[in-house]
Amino acid sequence: MCHSLEDQLSELKTKNEEHMRQLNDVNVQRSRLLTENGEFGRQLEEKESLVSQLTRGKQAYIHQIEELKKHLEDEVKVRDLESEVEAEQRRGAEAVKGVRKYERRVKELTYQTEEDKKNIARLQDLLDKLQLKVKSYKRQSEEAEEQANTHLSKYRKVQHEMDEAQERADIAESQVNKLRAKSREIVKGKEGEE
After folding, report:
1. Predicted pLDDT of residue 114
2. Has residue 194 been placed in a domain?
3. Model confidence at 131, in pLDDT bands (50, 70, 90)?
């Protein structure tokens, strides 16, 4: 009988050591998951900040594009000035006395027209570049949002794993406590028999 109790006690000690080892493994895993959880949370915040920054940049460029469109609409008046130049030239041929005056006017309008054409070309080039930037920022914003969603999914997965690890740790701890109580009962029973 005594030998049987010693065997049971030895077996319980072995099981207790195994449960303690499992509990330690679970705690190590829990600590690792907590660390990963914090890292994923930080990365998620960074991606959300990047999405917000890119969105603000996109809005700013859209506003600039709208302003450039207004300038381009104003430059349409250049064509009217070109028509006016032609009209002045025709009237100059008809009215000899006003030739010099109209020639000066033609030169001024021609110069202004060329300058306006250059301005239109520069504005169109700037508009094209801004549109490319808007497309690039939009693509980056979509990629950043996709990465943020990916990190959020990983964060939720890690959180779920951490909850499961905590549950296993609680179960292991409960089993260890039961084994300790049973071990004490066996020891008391053995001492009572002696």
Report:
1. 92
2. no
3. very high
Amino acid at 119: N
**Angle formed by the axes of helices 2-75 and 99-193, nearest 10°:** 170
Is 184 within a domain? no
List, in sequence order, the alpha helices (H) in the chain. Answer: 2-75, 77-94, 99-193
At 8, list the tokens.
């049971």
89-103 confidence digits (pLDDT tens):
777 677 767 767 868
Please give the structure tokens belonging to residue 184: 């004490």
CA 161, 165, 166, 168 dihedral sign is positive
* Domain that residue 168 falls in: 3-178
Contact assessment for residue 190 and residue 5, using Cβ atoms and an 8 Å cutoff: yes
For the chain, the C-alpha Rg in angstroms (whole number) is: 41
Q: CB neighbours of 131 closer than 8 A, spacing ≥ 6?
A: 65
Separation between Cα atoms, residue 178 and residue 180, nearest integer Å: 5
